[in-house]
Each structure stands twice: as C-alpha cells, then as structure tokens.
Please model this.
Amino acid sequence: MQLSGEFDDSRMGEAVRLIGMTLRIEHYSPSLVPGYEHLPTIHVVGQSDGASIVGQPRHIHGTVGVVADGSVRWTLFSSVEGADVDEWVSEGVQVGGVGSAMGFLGMWTGAQHERMDPLGKMPLLRTNVY
Model:
C-alpha cells in the first residue's frame, strides 16, 4: 500500500547519523495526569553534538512525563545555539516504562510542523532520567 507518491524517487535514500546528547534536569512540575500525580513532569536542558563533524552544537530542551496509559513520553526540541525558534522536535515513548534504562523510540520532524518538513524515525536512544 502506498500512502503518498511525493517521495517516490529512486534517487532518495535513508540516512543514519549517531548524534551524542547530554541532558540535565532543569526543574520539575506537577503531573496533570489523573492517577500519576506522584510522577512529576521533568524539564530537561542540554546540548547535542552537531549533525556532522563540522556541525554546530545544538541547544536541547524538553520534557519527560507520563501520559494517560502510564507510558513515559519524551518531547525534545533543538535549535542552533542562540536561535530564536526551535528547528527540530523529537517525540518518543520510553521502552519498558517508568524506571527503565532501555531508552526511547520515536520520531523527529520540523518543530514548526510545516507541510514539507522531513519526518524520520528515532531508533532506540539510551536514557536514564526517570
């Protein structure tokens, strides 16, 4: 089943980049999810390596929190240091739930959600915040 022919081009390929990231907890806020009030939303900030050897480091900020079914959701925004608006956003679900060190799986796209923004998968990212 083909959903769209817009990207049906044999010259296009998939790219994989390993990008290191360092995050620290900036602050906590109360969870607004009924039944999970004991698990705060964690606000993180940090930096990632550039997307290439000569790429600029990127500023990262976002949240780690619980959704209605108890899954842990990661939302991370990134931009070039000093930029006024975010460029990329990553959304993912932590594998193994609260307390798991497995990491999270998700997707990334443009932070402004414009029509022609790329959309990519994020393979397992190793994390250990919760």
In short: Strands lie at 21-29, 41-48, 58-66, 72-80, 88-94, 104-110, 119-125. The longest strand covers residues 21-29.
